[in-house]
Each structure stands twice: as C-alpha cells, then as structure tokens.
Design goal:
single chain, 143 residues, alpha+beta, Nucleoside Triphosphate Pyrophosphohydrolase, six-stranded mixed beta sheet, 3 helices, 6 strands, 25% helix, 31% strand
Length: 143
Amino acid sequence: MREKVYRAGLIPVYINPNNIEQSIMMFMIPSDQKYGGCSPQIAKGQIENGEQPDEAALREAHEELGLNEPNIYQLIDCGMWLGRTHMFVALVYSADIEKFDTPHYETQSTMWLTIDQFKSQGRDIHIPVVEQLFNLILSTLEK
C-alpha cells in the first residue's frame, strides 16, 4: 500500500551562468526552534485538503521564503523525500531579494547558500536531500 503524501517542499535555485557549481539556493530558519532548530532548512509544510503537492509547495515557498511565482521559469518535480514529503525545485530568474515578498511570521530569516555552504550550515536531516537534488538539477542542466 502506498503511503499518503502529507507535506510538500520547495527549493528556489538561482543558476550562476558563469559557474553552475556556484549556483545558489534559498533556505529559511524558522522563528520557533521547535520547528527544525536554528539551522537553514528547506521551506516545506502540510498539504491542505483539496490541494495538489505543487500548489502546496508554491504556497509554502511564498509563505516561508516570500517566493513569487512570476520569478519562476521552471518548476521541477523531484518526487518523494524525507519520508512523505513531495519535493520541488524552482529555477528562478532572479536572486534579488526585491523580487521576493516578506516571509510569514514563522520565518526568522531567509538566505541564499551554495551547496557547499548548505552542507556546512544546513539542517542535518536536509543535507543529503539538498545535495542529491542539487546534483539532479546539475545533471538536468548538462543535458
């Protein structure tokens, strides 16, 4: 029997055209440490009744990161991660914070990090997920 998906997450990625390996991803630190501690983590949350995973991921990314859909040029469905979380990557036109709204009160701060920065600073449980998703994006871009 297939497990129920109950969460969706999204990582905005700004591709550095001069050095793809130095592309940056946006993460958040929650206001309340009981929701994942004080390390940068993936924006994610519960899928609401009647909502599709991509809709939930976009909603959560707007709430927790301030991501605006017009700043997205490609949404990539990355499948199931972290147990029952449906993950997406959004390739964005701009990393300019002016292109983002103010995040929800549940977000203490947001930040752009390279993969190496996230591996040294990110939430432990998210590091292998982010690393694998980043490698997936790189392989997709190389094709």
